[in-house]
Design brief:
The complex is a heterodimer of chains A (285) and B (198). Chain A is an alpha+beta fold. Chain A is built from nine helices and twelve strands. Chain B is 23% helix and 21% strand. Chain B is built from five helices and twelve strands. The chains are: A alpha+beta (285), B alpha+beta (198). At the A-B interface, strand 4 of A face loops of B.
Amino acid sequence: MSPTNDVSTDLREQLETIRVRSKSRAIAVALHDLHTGFRFSLSGDRRFHAASTIKVAVLLAIFRAADEGRFQADDSLHVRNRFFSAADGSVFHVDPERDATPELYESVGRTAKISVLAHAMISGSSNLATNLLLDFIGVKYARKVLSEAGLDGVELRRGVEDHLAHERGVNNEATADGLLKLMSAIRGDFLTEESKRSVIRILLEQRFNSMIPAGLPKHATVAHKTGEISTACHDIGIVYLPEREPYIAAILTEFDPDKDGRRETVAAISETIYHFLLGREIQLK
Amino acid sequence: MKTEFLRPIDGFHLSQEHRALLRPGEKETDFSGNVHRLPRFFYEITSWQQAKEIRLAPHFTLAELTLVDCREARPLLSQFPHYVPCAIVLLATFLENLRREVDAPVFISANGGYRSPSHHIGGAQSIHAWSTAANIYRIGDTFLSDAKAIEKYRAIAASLSPAVFVRPFGREQGQTDDHLHVDLGYVSLTPRECSEAS
């Protein structure tokens, strides 16, 4: 076994301990440390319900479309809470009570800038903004973008809060490896420099910071997106630390419904990764 | 009413680019299979500021009836002058009557007034390309997003003129469930100083 595999085993064992202690159904972790080149994948090809992490895929597609000249980020869209189910085309609405950006619902009937919607979709995880943007570019186009980016582990099939589609098993799914590739695509050269900067800035302004950032020291900054539904609790992000290159992490977990301690489990995984990578960096020196 | 800046234009005299997008006087088949001629005469709007200043009726500005999102054809979205079919003044008059009847502000949604034949929603098949239709999303404090509100104001709007069509509440084709659609039919208006000889 190579030294790299040996250290992977250490991390794998630590994560397994967390999994057992948390009583989660499953955890998956994908990791790429851009400082040392270290890569790691635990159950990286296991499929999970993507929950709101799928919004990063929509974000990528939106900025790709802008790069292709389909529209400009300061263009406006009609704000309308009316969408069509991926199951049968029937009309559905998203619930303002479940949305962390209630102010967006005050714009119903009027317009909002695409850049504002993109920000609301990520920083406030707005379901209304997500469906408006996805409805605008279309699922087919977004899937084409994901394919062009080589993201085989991210399956975008529909908007959010499409309950009928959910009942019929039409869900957005992702693997940890796929979401790691998604974050890598954002950081790479898939988008123009201007779009890349915009996307990372939006991800840095994330309002929900109780998972990956909670496991890190205060001086860390994280461009990330969480995702939670009754059985899934995820966080994917780029972790920036002073005086070193960032690392990219995708942490996916699955629990029985209403199980406590889900976010704390992701935070504990984040903390474990942090100490592991920095410890390894010291060893390499 | 501040309409003195409205300058009528014969669409046949517009630039080739604008004629391609607005298709003045061309035949178009609607969703029911009926054929209509698209509007030929337009008012020229030189700036968005002007659109906000021009009152077509005491409580309706030109801007309110022409607000569209980026699904509109790019040249019609980002370049001035804009061109709006002259029948928009008839729509404004109807909306003013409705406002008087309900005694409350009437709010027109984005994409809910005039949309060009090149707009990606409905295109030339939509009656919105005649500027004789409006989607009302709110009256006073009431959002028109349920059967009770839509049917209440539908009855009021329909009572104002036999020429008015108001879509019923529902989620099928030809129905609405999050706004009130009113229209005056495929009306075209020729300003008295314009000729249809050619």
